[in-house]
Amino acid sequence: MPIDRWMDAANSHYYATRDPLGTSGDFTTAPEISQMFGELAGLWLADLWDRTGRPPAAYVELGPGRGTLAVDALRAMRTAGLVPFVHLVETSPALRAAQAERLPGAHWHTDVTTLPADCALLVVANEFFDALPITQAIRTVDGWRERVVIDNDGEFAFAIGDPVAGPKNAPDAAIVENRPVAGAILSALAPRIACQGGSLLTIDYGYPGPAFGDTLQAVRAHRFVDPLVTPGDTDLTAHVDFTALAAAAAPLVASGPVDQGEWLLRLGIATRAAALARATPDQGETIAAAYRRLTAPDAMGHLFKVLALTAPSWPEPAGLRG
Ligand code: SAH
Q1: CA 252 vs CA 178, 228, 314: distances in Å
Q2: Domain 10-132+180-210+234-310 is found in CATH 3.40.50.12710
Q3: Where are the domains of the chain?
Q4: Nearest CA to ligand 1 atom 14
Q5: Using a 6 Å CB cutoff, which residues line ligand 1?
Q6: pLDDT tens across 46-81, in order?
Q7: Is the peptide bond before 257 cis (omega within 30 degrees of 0)?
């Protein structure tokens, strides 16, 4: 079976059956590290909304996990005078239940097509696109072929499938990845944002494509494991091609990608960390550690990138130039 169908089946089971986040789970995301992350995302949205003339707006999150980012972002937005309706796009019943406990007034959607059509859309997607299934093509002596997963007497293995299209100049055994579901989501969402106003703030690990390489990875209990072993019980992801996201989101205007650390520093995370440390001195070390983890180039600061896709009629968002 093509890798995207296999990954879709594995991840649907994985997310539907657990809350994978946090120290007792499989992985930890930026909003779970510190409230500073969601607060700055919220203020980034509120600033953009304010400079646009404060139109009616909905806060939308794609794959909100435990709802932590939304809670922190909404609290920060309120201090800036922005109190939007909350619309969450989430397929996992387990995570919907976790979100409902913390965001009682929210509305849930299975996909982006049912989002409100009568207001600006302030959309956040943190570590969302990486969880969407990818296809892989591999350059063989017979040209480009789809990479597939086969069941070898109860053990999964990679194999070569049917001929597919691929770039002309590529070394032998080169691999290219595509994410058709991300393209489909963006081609449904981008025209809405372009017409209704708003922006999509994406934070994820990835690269500005095109590039060669196999980035499929599996994580369990905070360690990398073999993606082919126990699919559906590990967090299967692949790096995000930001160039491909921006291309699929035409006519939205792309800002970035910029390193997460750089973006947070430009938005004032140092000031926020200092204020939190003053208010809760016993938390000083925890706050300093979170600040470092979110911003340092050898932690999340460089690997994670920030890309905004904004309605052409809206102003330029903060912190994403160059
Ligand atoms: N944004 C959160 C969680 C990231 S994990 C955080 O940063 O902590 C990925 C999230 O995307 C989970 O909530 C998962 O259930 C959701 N998800 C995965 N595939 C999805 C899909 N196709 N549609 C909607 N949500 C999806």
Answers
A1: 20, 37, 10
A2: yes
A3: 10-132+180-210+234-310
A4: 63
A5: 15, 21, 29, 31-32, 63-65, 69, 89-92, 95, 126-128, 131-132
A6: 999 999 999 999 999 999 999 999 999 999 999 999
A7: yes
